[in-house]
Amino acid sequence: MTADSAAVLASEARALTAEAVSALEVASSVAELTAARPDLLGRGSPLTGLRRRLGALAPEDRPLAGRALSEALATVESRYDARLEELRAAERRRQLEAERLDLTELPEPPQVGRLHVITQTLQRLEDVFSAMGYTVAEGPEIETEWHNFGALNFPPGHPARDMYDTLYVDHGPPGSTLLRTHTSPVQVRVMVNQPPPLYVVAPGRCYRQDTADATHMPVFHQIEGLVVDDGITLGDLAGAIETFTTAYFGPGFTSRLRPSYFPFTEPSAEFDVQRPDGTWLELGGCGVVHPSVLEVCGVDPERWSGFAFGFGIDRLAMLRYGIGDLRDLWTNDVRFLEQF
Ligand code: DAH
Question: Measured in angstroms, how far is the CA atom of residue 182 from the centroid of ligand 1?
Fold first, then answer.
């Protein structure tokens, strides 16, 4: 049997090292790598087996061959540790990746709706009048001829009825039911149902036969005011209109009353609001409640007096928000509506 030489042992050690290193590079998981450890570095591994052949070497060859073997084992050991660390890191990364919550791809924020610009205007008006001590009343949009005209001192055939291009409803005797042409019938309903003192506003939809254009719509909104109390005069009316004007429009705005005619008030007036630039805006009608209206609604005109006012809301909103065409309020184009 040929005696081993240090050179032979060293070269075998190099070959086994290369084999072991490529085996541990191939391992693709921590489990696979640790399972291979006994074959690469354990007692029964080929590299360790070389040690047993050291004894057969010439004594002077042993240190050299021993060092070569130790170095081979150290190389495999350190490559093993490095590969183990590498595989552990990769596995941690994979796990984090799998458990990651992707916060960069949140769903689109929901489109939040808003109140229609007319509703916003109505609510703002209600707020201003509530602060002035008024409560809010409502009445039906389909009215009787009596509430809309008769009780308000428009007798049948009265020429003032012609100012209201009334839409009649096919219900009951002809001409007895209609779409309310103004919010004034709510005055009647309030007085019939509640005893004075009364401080109410009544906002709502009104209807008139009208062709839609930039400044007219067959459906529009008004707000009505009614006060009935002890010794109410025209002065109280002017004061209330002025208080409302500054509260709603702001400081720098004032109001004036101009004589006018309405069957249900005496005296009657139109009220205008003056803007800070000096220009006037015609807002609505008002007056001292006619004694026969009080009477027909069951309020004693000897005991109580009152004032009333009413004005359109759509034109108010147009002015306030710079809207050029009333029809835009009805077409429900979100690009228009979301501006307000
Ligand atoms: N109802 C009237 C209209 O639509 C406006 C009006 C005028 C209301 C005088 C009132 C008032 O309360 O006193 O033309």
Answer: 7
